[in-house]
Amino acid sequence: MFSENLKALRKARGMTQEELAARLHVVRQTVSKWEKGLSVPDAELLIRLAEVLDTTVGQLLGADIPEDGESRNDLADQLARINEQLAIRNRRGRFILRLVLGILAAIVVFNILLLVFSYGAFRSFQDPEQTVTSANEALQDDTFQ
Hints:
Elements: H1 2-12, H2 17-24, H3 28-36, H4 43-52, H5 57-61, H6 69-124, H7 128-144
């Protein structure tokens, strides 16, 4: 049902599979698989798909919106669950992003500290000729006093 509705709505809007894929940021083969019924989009992509085709998710899936209150409540519950799943997915994504950025920041700070300490250690060593000259000067100063 979804595959047939998708194909009909896409053609009714005068869009090719490539155009639809470009607007959804997927490859054309993905749209082809949806239209052949080989796969289905995830919930987030389904919502974007409905927006691009200027329709509702229910119509895209082939579900008629019920007239009675109890069926409407069931539909509202399903949409609430989908929304909750999307929120959980977004929170996980933000957590992972913060974790990766924190690790990268720690690596950068570690490298900066390493450079500072290396530079300090490098500066503590002097040119060997300069060290000999300084030692000779110190000996000459001691012998004249």
